[in-house]
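Worked example 2:
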Amino acid sequence: MKNEILRNQEGVILVVALLMLLVLTLISLSSINSSIFEINISGNERIGTTAFYAAEAVLQSAVSQLPNMNAIARTKIGEDEYGWTGSLSDKNSPKDSKYRGLQKVAGFDQTWAFERFQVNTSGEALSGAKEVEAGIRYGPISAGTSPNN
């Protein structure tokens, strides 16, 4: 009788099928979890990129107005994007660009120089924020004739 029970394999396929179903379910759950994680990463990247482009837009505005160094107030750039000059903490009180003095450049004689500026801008989009800093050389101008001296 004992040998007969051990040789009877009628329920084995059900157990194997259930084990395979369990393995496939675990693989599916792992794939879903991984996909959700990747979607979150790509969403955060999109928000960060949008904030960077908002800061970059304000930087281009600030550069186009040089040698005027006036601050650019918090400006709406897109649907949910804002930008201003200064750091992220300067949202409500933007900062002017900074004058960094004259610089002599190789290839130009002593009568010519370049003005140097530092422009910091920030941008925010939804829950993300980015800062951009640029060092700008403006010129050539006649040495000793800079209005910022």
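Helices lie at 2-7, 12-64. Residues 2-142 form one domain.
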